[in-house]
TrEMBL record:
It comes from the Bacteria. It comes from Streptomyces yanii. The lineage of its organism: Bacteria, Bacillati, Actinomycetota, Actinomycetes, Kitasatosporales. It is found in: Gas vesicle. This is GvpL/GvpF family gas vesicle protein. The keyword Glycoprotein does not apply. Belongs to the gas vesicle GvpF/GvpL family. The keyword Transferase does not apply.
C-alpha cells in the first residue's frame, strides 16, 4: 500500500457552508480531490487539503522535485488554482507551497 500524506493549501472561513461545493471537482496537487478539514479553533474555520503520494512529498523527494521545473510548475499551478477558488468566496490565508502533514 502506498503511504499517503496530506497537502495543505490554505486556511479559510466557511461561514455559509458552501466552500466544499465550490471545490467539488477542482483538481488539486497530483490531480487529487480537494476537501475541507474543520479546525478546532472556530466552527467556520477550515483548511483546504488533498491527499498526495508520500513518495513525491516526503522531505528527500521534495528536495529533488523542487529542482525539476516541470514538476514545480505543475504543483505551483494546482496550489494557486485552489487558493484562487477559495479567494473567490472568502478571505483566505494561503499556506506555503508544498506544505504537507504526515498523518
Amino acid at each position: 500500500m502506498t503511504e499517503v500524506i496530506t497537502y495543505a493549501y490554505a486556511v479559510a472561513r466557511d461561514t455559509d457552508g458552501v466552500l466544499e461545493a465550490e471545490l467539488s471537482g477542482l483538481p488539486g496537487v497530483a490531480d487529487a480531490p480537494v476537501h475541507l478539514v474543520h479546525t478546532r479553533h472556530c466552527d467556520d474555520e477550515v483548511a483546504a487539503a488533498s491527499p498526495v503520494p508520500a513518495q513525491d512529498f516526503q522531505e528527500a523527494a521534495l528536495r529533488t522535485h523542487l529542482e525539476d521545473l516541470d514538476w514545480l510548475e505543475s504543483v505551483a499551478r494546482a496550489h494557486h488554482r485552489v487558493i484562487e477558488a477559495l479567494a473567490a468566496r472568502t478571505t483566505v490565508l494561503p499556506l506555503r507551497l508544498a506544505t504537507v502533514v504526515a498523518a
